[in-house]
């Protein structure tokens, strides 16, 4: 595990001067799939809370939350570059988004299959009633995001 000087990290929620192609590359490297830069710009611009972490000017961690201000905040798209994983950055991003979401009656998080234990350590519990419709239902089923039935 690489040592990280916390003082070298720069935290921001600003979209100004964000390179959407750099963000796309972070998701690909994380690996959380191929996300179109224009789609990311729309998603992050429409999110109430967002978090960007830079190390030496390089984007190394991100996350966002859609929130209505009172009832529900939905944390999603949390990603950390592999070079910076295992140092607690993902936990810090989620903690910051949780803090920003304080006051909402519920905070929901959508996780990549297999990452549930990580989020359980942060206080999240599996919902028994969550359901979804995906653009590509068959692919979502194959990747473990949906169950039969």
Describe the structure in your own words.
- It comes from Rivibacter subsaxonicus.
- This is Acetyltransferase (GNAT) family protein.
- It is a single chain.
- The longest helix has 12 residues, at 89-100.
- Helix content is 28%, strand content 23%.
- It has helices at residues 20-29, 37-45, 89-100, 116-120, 137-142; strands at residues 9-12, 49-55, 58-67, 72-80, 106-109.
- The protein has five helices and five strands.
- The model has no long low-confidence stretch (mean pLDDT 92).
- A five-stranded mixed sheet has the order 1-2-3-4-5.
- The protein is an alpha+beta fold and 149 residues long.
In short:
By secondary structure, this protein is an alpha+beta fold. Helices cover 28% and strands 23% of the residues.
């Amino acid at each position: 595990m690489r040592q990280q000087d916390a003082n070298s990290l720069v935290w921001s929620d600003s979209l100004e001067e964000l390179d959407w192609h750099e963000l796309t590359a972070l998701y690909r490297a994380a690996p959380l799939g191929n996300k179109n830069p224009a789609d990311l710009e729309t998603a992050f611009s429409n999110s109430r809370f967002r978090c960007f972490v830079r190390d030496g000017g390089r984007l190394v961690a991100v996350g966002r939350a859609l929130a209505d201000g009172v009832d529900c905040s939905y944390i999603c798209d949390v990603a950390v570059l592999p070079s910076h994983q295992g140092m607690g950055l993902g936990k810090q991003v989620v903690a910051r988004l949780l803090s920003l979401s304080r006051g909402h009656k519920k905070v929901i998080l959508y996780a990549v299959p297999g990452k549930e234990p990580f989020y359980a350590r942060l206080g999240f519990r599996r919902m028994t009633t969550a359901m979804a419709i995906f653009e590509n239902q068959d692919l979502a089923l194959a990747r473990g995001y949906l169950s039969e039935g």
